[in-house]
Specification:
40% of the residues lie in helices and 14% in strands. It is α/β, with parallel strands linked by helices. It has a 7-stranded mixed beta sheet, with helices on both faces. A hairpin with a 6-residue loop joins strand 3 and strand 4 (83-86). Helix 1 packs across helix 11 (241-257). The chain is globular and about 50 Å long.
Length: 259
């Protein structure tokens, strides 16, 4: 059975996107689900956040240019036997400039991932997209079965959400990915002490209903600290509110997408 591909995206930075990619991937692996996380962000936050080195030539840059295979770039986690990663590096930023004039520039990543998706080795592939709606993010959406939006509990969140949902419709109408679905909206940086978080959460749920995950990601210093130690929140502080939240989110994710 082909792996299900999830693109975690938001055109705004600092919304918990890479944090979600890291902890969701580890959470799935801990549940025995073979998971591959593909770091598409040139800043390589998911790569360093999982303790992997930024290795020259180790990213998707080469394969997206037709140079080398994707398989040889897959690294296995030492801490979690069901977790694998294709790391990122700064060279990936050049994709934005170099692919623009190429044929099928929106489908390069999809073509690269096809043998991995159908290999039977993985059940879930998580794409951590950069915080911009450029060519890399567009490739990530064109290669995905589902878009997962990490949405911070702040003002203007709805405006950004409408923008990325509009991009999904444009990609579908352009024929880049007819099957792309909005798989879910995950509310992040939820501060239970503030009215603002509750108001934004209520507003998003009133507009999008069951599309919004029931569980939220709390604003947490421990969640912010964990990547600097190259660890997921499950490894860094397994009893913290952030770890408890991502455990529940992982379970909800498994049930929602039948993994």
């Amino acid at each position: 059975m082909a792996a299900k591909v999830f693109s975690i995206a938001n055109q705004k930075g600092g919304v918990g996107k890479s944090t979600t990619a890291i902890n969701l991937s580890v959470g799935l692996a801990m549940k025995g689900i073979p998971t591959l996380i593909v770091d598409l962000d040139p800043q390589a936050n998911a790569t360093s956040g999982l303790g992997f080195p930024k290795k020259p030539g180790g990213s998707m840059y080469g394969p997206m240019h037709g140079d080398g295979s994707v398989e040889e770039r897959i690294l296995q986690s030492e801490e979690h036997k069901n977790l694998y990663i294709i790391p990122s590096e700064v060279d990936l930023a050049a994709i934005e400039i170099e692919l623009g004039q190429e044929k099928d520039y929106l489908l390069r990543l999809d073509s690269c991932l096809e043998p991995i998706r159908n290999s039977g080795k993985f059940k879930a592939i998580i794409l951590d997209c950069p915080p911009a709606l450029g060519l890399i993010s567009m490739n990530g959406l064109a290669a995905a079965d589902y878009l997962i939006v990490a949405l911070q509990c702040e003002y203007l969140a709805m405006e950004g959400l409408q923008q990325i949902l509009g991009v999904v419709e444009k990609l579908k109408h352009a024929g880049a990915n007819h099957d792309l679905e909005v798989g879910g909206i995950l509310m992040t940086m939820y501060d239970i002490r503030t009215n603002l978080s509750r108001q934004v959460d209520d507003e998003v749920r009133s507009h999008f209903g069951d599309l919004v995950f029931k569980n939220v990601v709390p604003r947490s210093i421990r969640l912010s600290e964990a990547p600097s130690f190259g660890q997921s929140i499950f490894d860094y502080d397994p009893l913290s509110p952030g770890a408890i939240a991502y455990k529940k989110i992982t379970q909800e994710f498994v049930q929602r997408f039948k993994l």
